[in-house]
Design a protein that fits this description.
The complex is a heterodimer of chains A (about 110) and B (about 110). In chain A, about 0% of the residues lie in helices and about 55% in strands. Chain A has about 110 residues and is an all-beta fold. Chain B is an all-beta fold and about 110 residues long. Chains A and B meet through strand 5 and strand 10 of A and strand 4 and strand 5 of B.
Amino acid sequence: DTEVTQTPKHLVMGMTNKKSLKCEQHMGHRAMYWYKQKAKKPPELMFVYSYEKLSINESVPSRFSPECPNSSLLNLHLHALQPEDSALYLCASSRGLPSYEQYFGPGTRLTVT
Amino acid sequence: ILNVEQSPQSLHVQEGDSTNFTCSFPSSNFYALHWYRWETAKSPEALFVMTLNGDEKKKGRISATLNTKEGYSYLYIKGSQPEDSATYLCAPRILGSARQLTFGSGTQLTVLP
């Protein structure tokens, strides 16, 4: 199974809402990643977890809060987002760090109203 | 911030044509280069990981070459098919930041039947 799954596929939320994005993999990978992708731009790294510990935070605003409850799951908690945070949020995983290959999920399309 | 350039930005070819595009990156502190294919509404799919100067990789009708001394990689598609239509992204990794991928803006390929 080389699949990374993400839920939900689409999410619309208001600026005062709290929501979470979920990512799951069952490949035994020990590194997991969150990327943000705006239209016509490349994916930008947000967070990296290695062995369930936060390894990289690319100066992401605190309204985004990642969580890695176990080696198969990665969450991104969202609170008090702004309309400019509307984007495609991609999750990826790899065997470890540094990784030779990252496997991506299909993404969650987030719209903040 | 790593400067990664891909050209052309977009490309339309006829079915059966062969095509190629370029990824340019800083040649210093090179660690690895990844190529991904990203079809609309799907997950980015890893094509190649290249590490050595002069590397050539092949997967079916798609191949790639790497020149780490001058900082570029070419992706070739022989006999393009409509199913090759996708955005092709390159992502170099450098020493000191080998844990993360920095994506180029991609080349959007459309193969016309």
